Amino acid sequence: MSRLVRPWAGRFLDEGTAFGPGDSLLSEITGPLPKDQEFVLLMQGALQGQGKALCLHPYPKWEAALRPDRGGFPVRPRTGQEPKNDSEEIASQALGRMNEVLARVQELQEALDEPSETWPRLRAAWTRAQDEEDPRMAEIVRQARDLLPVVRNLEKRIRRVLRRHRELTPLDRVQEMDRASMVWLSRQPGKTVAERAGANQRILATVRQEDFNTLENRVFHSYLRLAADVAREWVRQHPNAQASNRYRAVDSYRKVCLSLARMLVGQSVGLAGPGATPNYVLMQDKGYRLVYDGWIKLLQRQKIEDDLWAWQAQAWTDFSVLAIVLALDELEESELVAQSPILWRDEAYTGRWFEQDRPLAVFWLRETGRVVEVQARPEAPGPLLTLARAHVALRITDPNRGDLPRRVAVWTPHAMQRFDLEQSAEDSLERVKQIQRFSSHEVLRNGLILAPAHGVSEAITKSHDNLRVNAIALGASGQTLADGLDALRAFARSEIYRGVT
């Protein structure tokens, strides 16, 4: 296993050197796949009869991890936790970027409701995301909208039970006595009940008191605490959206949840554990059932985030592929002639929310007469993509001419630190130069890098003779998303119409 700093790198990490937060956590494997390493297979091809595989390793859940060695990484922040130092601030910013990428990818799920309008609907959602004053949809936003009246209603009718216990009670208030009370009374001095009650005229009797510490209220309390933490985290990640309805709704819901949680503490209601088995009330009472369902969804969100944190690079690749499809779909003469079925998962698996066949989309340029395929994680990448170590590509074919099909290698590297985009473009151009020495039934002369912007959008082009690499740093929301999509549209036009007179 040869560990790579970047997919286009000409050299590998030295033995004994750990991956760092500025690395892309990629490895190239020659021969059989190892069984003692954490990785997912991105692409598997062959070069001169020898099998080669491109693998991605997860970000560690802690600062360091083994198999392979990884060190110095930020730790995923706990839900609702405010950053207390520079390291936690870096982790909080990384979590915010991850959630924005996930929001863009998850908007595909709603767009799939109308298969014939998938890409226009997704484009409309991404256009809204470019306005930072219109924050992303999230589970806490839905709950702030749907569960606020439910929570308010439960506040008025919070369930209580009457529990029996024994205490010294005035004679005129005694209503019930059990065996232990009668034994106590029989042992007191005196012949009559009044004499045995003593000077205070009190005897040990069974009384009933209201008790709010039931399972359903403990679940309610746990939900309120978790919802307040998630809402605080969402609000912190959208400081520019304070004038939006979503921001006001979530912030208001946070305050309501905190207020009700304090009320439950005053009534001695404890907290339920995540594995609590629902009782009759939680299953049959509509209000408590909705709260329980909301609690489970937020708990699952935390579990899912652990997995998504580790496999952010996978989500980034899916986001990049969707951005490419949108850029091609916007060409005036483009017509979507084929699209692979997209299977949406209930839960992300190794950072991926959907599966699709290859290619994802095929466009026909009516006037130019070219066919453009968008390929992601190809099953048969061919020698050129195997050499390029690019698991995303464009394949451009001109059926009216006898030219060889040409590919554009698309690299979607992800790291916890921002790339030096200019240096990356120069290095990847060197990789493209090396590929020209290899004879093949296809042509690969151009490349595209899509890297996370980390708050600063940028676009760079490096060329040599008839070779070219475009490098674009884009974000998943706000101005960095708008600038990145503009740069991607410009690249698509220049590449698709290359050689057209």
Q: Please list the strands of the largest sheet in the order they lie side by side.
A: 9-12-13-14-15-16-18-17
Distance between the termini: 46 Å
Report mean pLDDT, rounded to a whole number: 89
How many strands? 18
Could you tell me the radius of gyration in angstroms? 31 Å
| Count of folded domains | 4
The structural class is alpha+beta
The residue fraction in helices comes out at 25-40%
Estimated share of beta-strand residues: 15-25%
- Enumerate how many helices there are, as a single number: 14
Largest sheet: 8 strands, mixed
Pick out the low-confidence regions. none
Work out the oligomeric state of the chains in this entry. single chain
| Overall geometric form | elongated
Description:
- Strand 12 and strand 13 form a beta hairpin.
- With 501 residues, this protein is of the alpha+beta class.
- The model has no long low-confidence stretch (mean pLDDT 89).
- The chain has four domains: 2-71, no CATH class; 96-130 and 311-496, no CATH class; 139-158 and 214-308, no CATH class; 161-211, no CATH class.
- It has helices at residues 86-111, 118-129, 139-146, 148-156, 179-186, 193-196, 215-236, 245-266, 280-284, 286-310, 312-329, 382-388, 421-435, 478-496; strands at residues 2-4, 26-30, 40-47, 50-56, 64-65, 70-71, 161-170, 202-211, 334-339, 342-349, 352-356, 361-365, 370-376, 392-397, 406-411, 443-452, 458-464, 467-474.
- 40% of the residues lie in helices and 23% in strands.
- The longest helix has 26 residues, at 86-111.
- Strands 9-12-13-14-15-16-18-17 form an eight-stranded mixed beta sheet, with helices on both faces. A four-stranded antiparallel beta sheet has the order 1-2-4-3.
- Helix 1 (86-111) packs across helix 11 (312-329).
- The chain is built from 14 helices and 18 strands.
